[in-house]
Design a protein that fits this description.
496 residues; 15 strands; alpha/beta; 19 helices; five-stranded parallel sheet
Length: 496
């Protein structure tokens, strides 16, 4: 604890965002380049190095937050990077994408703004790359054992890197043409530039991890045959079966899933397309769903030049302060938060029907109507009460010629043949069933991440990847593993 009074004398200061008028004209990250390092030392000084750091419990990775806060405050960046990477394979991802449950669990957050843990993490990760503190770490010797990892999202990548570093020969199978899963085609460039992903993938290749792209296991490669060729298989395909909107008019043209829309915008940024076939340019857009994916669609539509964009959230607008009875510290509270996309939409007034930031809260879709050609033209919405019952007289009509469904995901897809060919059992939620060692009912086959846990956060995905790697290592060696296992398959976030 470099400054015992830092939390008393230094106010919270976050990484500033670029002006809205500037950033909506490009796809670069929304933050001011270089503006984080000058403030981060003082922000790290706000950490109290409390006797029982609840930020550890709030973070499924068990990040050693007080340790690297102290090291950053002393400007020992190399040691801070070592402590950060000791528990997190990809801090440059979590530092940009994670909603920071660690900050909700910060002891300082009991009665003050929390330490800017997420910003400190991002600063350390970026400094580590700049200073060469994150070199490839290939194994000293190979075990002679082979592992196939199916899926290259954060879970699959974390599992692959851990197993490769343990000496096993790992091949990652990815159905898309590039590695990264949702990190590649689901996360917009303005939230995380793909150079961060590419840099980490080059590190993994240098360590020995192999990647097989444009390969759908179950369709291009027989899943049972793959299992026979490898000593172990890790399924980390994610929960990509999207939820549907069961209302009249769903069949109209112009109604698309968010994960049909976002990948095309990302492909434009990758240079694959000049213009997205689903571009929002000049169109009235309505996004059904109030979560992060909906916000990603919002920021994307704004950058594409939509005529208007409105986001529907079925929940009532949350308050700005924690409800100590319903969501006491250190649980992660549901608060009114203004993402970069909502800030942009609010300042640009993209949604005339909304009060402030493009969101209509407590709003439920009744039906969609279209024109004579069968293309959607309007969305009929109604206000709902706490029990999601329509409020009489509250129906309204929104112009809509592009409707995006961001309603979340129900589990792994079943149409590719993977689950059937391996004979995997599913749990009642539709996710892959597994035991306390992440093992499925098929010997040598393990399941991790959203495919088994269900839709979750990037920080839980990485924790799952690290934990399943330890389980696979134990299976392959027949003894204890030196790999860390931060969580068990049945662990869940803290709740009241």
């Amino acid at each position: 604890m470099a400054d015992p009074k830092g939390f008393l004398t230094t106010p919270r200061q976050e990484w500033p965002r670029r002006p809205v008028s500037e950033r909506v004209r490009d796809w670069n990250e929304v933050y001011v380049p270089g503006a984080l390092l000058p403030v981060i030392g003082a922000q790290a000084n706000r950490c109290m190095d409390c006797g029982v750091p609840f930020c550890h419990d709030a973070c499924p990775l068990g990040n050693l937050i007080p340790e690297w806060n102290d090291l950053v405050s002393r400007e020992d960046w190399r040691a801070a990077a070592e402590r950060l990477h000791a528990t997190n394979n990809f801090p440059e991802f979590t530092g940009r994408l994670c909603p920071a449950p660690c900050e909700a669990g910060c002891v300082l957050a009991i009665n003050q703004p929390a330490v800017t843990i997420k910003n400190v993490e991002c600063a350390v990760a970026d400094r580590a790359w700049e200073e060469g503190f994150a070199p490839p770490a290939p194994p000293e010797r190979l075990s002679g054992r082979t592992v196939a990892v199916i899926g290259s999202g954060p879970t699959g990548l974390a599992a692959a890197q851990q197993l490769t570093r343990a000496g096993h020969t790992v091949a990652v199978y990815e159905r898309d043409d590039r590695v990264g899963g949702l990190l590649r085609y689901g996360i917009p460039e303005f939230k995380m530039e793909k150079r961060h992903l590419e840099r980490r993938l080059e590190q993994m290749r240098a360590e020995g991890t192999r990647f097989r792209t444009s390969t759908t296991v179950g369709r291009d490669v027989d899943a049972a045959g793959l299992r026979a060729r490898y000593d172990a298989v890790v399924i980390a395909t994610g929960a990509t079966a999207w939820r549907e909107l069961a209302v009249p008019g769903r069949e109209l043209a112009g109604v698309h899933q968010a994960m049909e829309y976002l990948p095309l915008a990302n492909r434009v940024c990758e240079g694959d397309l000049a213009v997205s076939p689903l571009s929002a340019a000049g169109r009235h857009v309505v996004i059904v769903g109030g979560g992060d994916t909906g916000a990603d669609c919002l920021g994307t539509a704004v950058r594409e030049g939509a005529a208007s964009v409105t986001q529907l959230d079925i929940y009532a607008r949350p308050g700005g302060e924690r409800d100590e009875d319903a969501e006491p510290w250190p649980t992660f509270p549901k608060l009114y938060r203004l993402s970069a996309a909502h800030e942009e939409a609010g300042e640009l007034r993209t949604a005339p029907a909304a009060d402030a930031d493009a969101r209509l809260f407590a709003a439920s879709t009744l039906r969609l109507t279209g024109d004579a050609d069968g293309h959607v033209r309007s969305l009929h919405v109604v206000e709902v009460d706490a029990g999601r019952r329509p409020v009489p007289g509250s129906e309204r009509t929104l112009p809509a010629d592009l409707v995006l469904l961001a309603l979340g995901f129900s589990g792994p897809e079943r149409g590719d043949g993977l689950i059937a060919q391996l004979g995997l059992e599913l749990d009642p939620r539709g996710t892959i069933a597994r035991d306390a060692d992440f093992a499925t009912n098929v010997p040598g086959v393990f399941a991790a991440g959203d495919a088994a846990r269900g839709q979750s956060l990037v920080v839980w995905a990485i924790a799952e990847g690290r934990a399943v790697a330890a389980a696979v290592d134990r299976h392959l060696t027949g003894g204890p593993s030196r790999l860390p296992s931060p969580i068990g398959p049945y662990d869940r976030p803290m709740t009241a």
